[in-house]
Amino acid sequence: MSQTATALPARDEIQSEYKWQIEDIYASEQLWRADFAKVKSAIPTVANYKGTLAQSPATLAACLQLRDEINILAGKLFAYARLQRDENSANAKYQALVGKTESLLAETGAAAAFIKPEILAMPAAVLATYRQDQALAEYSFYFDNLIRQKQHILSPGEEEILARSVEITQAAETAFNMLAHADMTFPEIKGEDGKILTLSEGRYRALIMSADRRVRKDAFTGLFGAYHAFRNTFAATLSGCVKKNIFYARTRKYNTTLESSLADDNIAVGVYDNLLTTVNNNLAPLHRYIDLKKKALKLDKLHMYDLYTPLAPAVTFTVTYQEGQKLVQDSLAPLGPEYTGILQQGLTSGWIDVYENKGKQSGAYCWGVYGVHPFVLLNYNDRLEDVSTLAHEMGHAIHSYYSQATQPYATSQYTIFTAEVASTTNEILLNDFLLKTTKDPRKKLYLINQYLEMVRATVYRQTMFAEFEKLIYDQAENGETLTADLLEELWHALNVKYYGPAIVIDPEIDIEWARIPHFYANFYVYQYVTGFSAATTLAEQMLTKSDGAQERYLNFLKSGGSDYPLTILKNAGVDMFTPQPVELTLNKFANMLDELEKTITNS
Ligand SMILES: [Zn+2]
Q: How are cofactors bound according to the entry's free-text note (predicted)?
């Protein structure tokens, strides 16, 4: 418990069984240097293919294979430097190796930049004939995906202008970041202990959950007051970003910005619309949750600043790493013996860097290294959320393991759209397992609250964000100006609709859109909802042992980037064109509300 109170251990004080094995990438720096030299000398060879790709299928295949070989090596080189830098960011040696590798990656990228446009410039009939050649078989999906977007690629001269415009069109987003993260100041409020503290975004997240209503109200009023003072500037930066995206979408001949944003992953606009419609048709459970919260907190009126207050007092679960591993293994048993076998291998074969040490990168991630194995960085600190993180990151790791073991390099990389499905499925299975096996009513109530908050924040809130994005792009594409008044009006109405009659939508909340950085990554957040709903559906199929579910799931993990994400998911048994995945998720949410109601009345 007191790990934070005592000084962090130095890296060499940590036992080697809790550290990842970098030597699996390169046994020595000498070997790293040898590969570095090899990549460096291959760069001119790639560049020499320029202008020759249409000569023969063999030439085209040789060039693509060389590019892949270079990328595989470059991936190993970068991982070796970067992972060791993350072990201790104060280590100047690996900082230098990271920098060196980044320059090399930029060089290889530049040398290979001609490949895509040159393939696209080939007459369609020639390329079609070439594709019959066995040597190009593994690039079949690569070609499909390339050709699919051909109509949106402009002439070389126009492309050059667009490429140069990026630096200028970033201005609105840069201004947003400067204002929100550097120039803006927040007021002082009295904390829980009565001492004065200066608000910040980081502190707000803890303060808004305070059991002391005065504290959360002050934090709420203080934070949104600060944003309100710059409402016109924030409207201008968001509007500038929206206009930028409309400009690129129209220039690239898309019907709408939404269509252009979804095009990279070949996601149909219908999937986005279906998501909004389905959540809108299922707002009743959220309204009921808000109402239950009001009752549980014994408040006459629930305000926006009461929304994040936990229904259950915080319970400390202390889970050692050994116990955490066991929990993850037991909870993932529904995925079958093959999956848990690989999990066991991952837990015991130097994939994971478990504990925090002086200078180590914070947070958690998974890093797949093609031809080696995945690496997982953790900062395990014996809390329940650390167990969730382990389950989540191992989901990514085993996804990488399967994709890289099954797919050639060309189709081994999965998209973000499917990545979070593999990790979230594990989290959901862990959560279900804990709910089933936890007897202590206080702990159980805590877990239910956690689950409900997760669905509220991931499914409902992110869909509200997605709907807001759709609304503002519709307005802007129809020639409306996105003023602060208009943005506030739209945001307010969405809050009224989503949270329902049991809560007062305080006017302070109307400016909330101004603080959401994701609105500058256009039409991104809906993926949280699709990912969570797909994962819930897959976990459900595993738990109910539906026919062939395990095999379909493993095939999903093995697919990597060999097809479009929606097709891969459909083959796994999740059809994102239908309302079912979201409905199933929100039904589960409603069932959990029944649990909550029982638990509250029994306690
Ligand atoms: Zn993740």
A: Binds 1 zinc ion.
